[in-house]
Write a structure and sequence with these properties.
Elements (H helix, E strand, L loop, with lengths): L8 H5 L3 H13 L7 H25 L5 H23 L7 H15 L3 H13 L19 H6 L2 H8 L1 H9 L2 H14 L6 H22 L2 H27 L13 H7 L3 E2 L3 H7 L5 H6 L5 H17 L6 E2 L1 H15 L1 H4 L6 H46 L5 H11 L1
Parallel strand pairs: 1-2
Helix pairs in contact: 3-4, 4-5, 4-12, 5-11, 6-10, 9-12, 9-17, 10-11, 19-20
């Protein structure tokens, strides 16, 4: 199932709200919507210890290249903190919105991701996953999730889309920075409630982070530390989110589905043991999470067999696969979406990769060739001017402006 496919009309037109009500009764009867405060308190305590360990390691190592290892460790810790912020945004931790928001804002400050901006954006995604014109997660400048989107790309975005399957993971290196900047831009455009609070939570921790890094490390090491920390955090976040919906059906603009079908048909689960739950922050149970966003993370694994069995009984396609295969499906879909832009490399990854290398060489060589042509013109003009001037010298005098004119003509 890929996102180049759209949801069939027959499915889109059948109201099935009663099915979801029956499933919800089963979920409630199993106690899977009950809060798990003890789990979250333990998880947050572990994260606090890991963050303190990262800070201690940073202080002890000082101005050393071993700090690159600290940056890698901090990228993992930062992403785990972001998972808690995600759960707070869905009110999974407490019943009180106020208490969830308190946790969410705190973790937003620690990760550099604006909690207020992210919650608003993420709620739009949950309301209409993979829905054209309504899901912000499939409206990305540098990536196309359908051939129609690919055809609309222009300039450098069109070139990226052309080879997006090869560039997808490198692009994720910028994901954390993009999330930070998006929050700051929303703040600048006055789109956030309580802008002073948002400004304080974004700018003060960021300033403290930069001061600490440049105070302890030399400028070069500091820049490397920041690049590794933010880059790997972006890759970790992107690899946690990408398998969830990318490559799944896209709902055409103007089409409506009931909640059950809308969430199940556009989501994909990633199978694996509890280590996968910990690694991906529970987002590997994406179907259950989208059906019940406020379900606590540790209950998603218990809900999974109930939801899968219910879908089987009601003839609703339920998608799940391994982590490796999920990434393969995502890349295969991205490759297909960009296919019309590639032309001759259709169907051959080797030829497409060769085309990518050729394009990159062209981007690099073209300015070099142009510079060489300018130098050649300059030298040729100067040489011609010199010969002319020498001849005139023998004839009774050299005029400097003639040499200068020869150089200008060469340019």
């Amino acid at each position: 199932m890929t996102s180049t496919h759209t949801v069939p009309d027959a499915t889109a037109q059948v109201p099935r709200g009663s099915d979801f009500a029956r499933l919800t009764r089963e979920i409630k009867a199993a106690g899977l919507l009950d809060r798990r405060r003890g789990y979250y308190l333990l998880r947050m305590a572990v994260n606090a210890v890991l963050l303190a360990a990262a800070a201690t390691l940073f202080a002890v190592l000082g101005d050393s290249w071993w700090q690159v290892a600290t940056a890698v460790f901090l990228a993992v810790v930062s992403t785990q903190l972001a998972f808690i912020g995600h759960d707070a945004g869905h009110r999974q931790i407490f019943r009180s919105r106020r208490h969830n928001d308190l946790v969410g804002h705190l973790h937003g400050g620690l990760t550099g991701i604006s909690y207020g901006w992210w919650v608003a954006k993420h709620n739009r995604h949950h309301a209409n996953p993979n829905h054209e014109d309504e899901d912000p997660d499939i409206e990305i400048h540098a990536i196309a999730f359908s051939r129609a989107q690919a055809a609309e790309k222009r300039g450098v975005h069109r070139w990226i889309t052309k080879y997006q399957a090869f560039l997808f993971f490198p692009l994720l290196l910028a994901e954390a920075a993009v999330l930070r900047l998006s929050g700051l831009m929303a703040l600048w455009r006055r789109e956030l409630r309580n802008p002073w609070r948002e400004a304080a939570l974004q700018l003060v921790p960021a300033a403290a982070y930069l001061v600490a890094v440049f105070l302890v490390l030399s400028p070069v090491k500091a820049l490397v530390f920041i690049a590794v920390h933010q880059g790997l955090m972006g890759v970790y976040l992107g690899c946690s989110f990408a398998p969830n919906h990318k490559g799944m059906p896209i709902i055409a603009a103007g089409r409506r589905l009931d909640h059950l079908h809308k969430q199940v048909l556009t989501s994909r689960n990633v199978t694996g043991g509890r280590w996968v739950d910990a690694l991906l922050g529970g987002l590997n149970h994406q179907i259950e999470h989208h059906l019940y966003p406020h379900m606590p993370r540790p209950n998603l694994r218990r809900a999974q067999p109930l939801v899968e069995d219910f879908c089987a009984r009601h003839g609703i396609p339920y998608s799940k696969t391994t982590m490796r295969r999920s990434y393969a499906q995502v890349l295969r879909h991205l490759h297909g979406a960009g296919e019309p832009l590639r032309g001759s490399c259709t169907g051959s990854p080797q030829r497409c990769l060769s085309g990518l290398v050729d394009d990159l060489q062209g981007v690099v060589e073209e300015p070099v060739e142009q510079a060489g042509a300018r130098r050649g013109g300059l030298e040729g003009g100067a040489e011609a001017g010199h010969r002319d001037g020498a001849g005139q010298g023998r004839g009774g005098g050299v005029r400097a402006e003639q040499v200068g004119q020869g150089v200008r003509r060469g340019r």
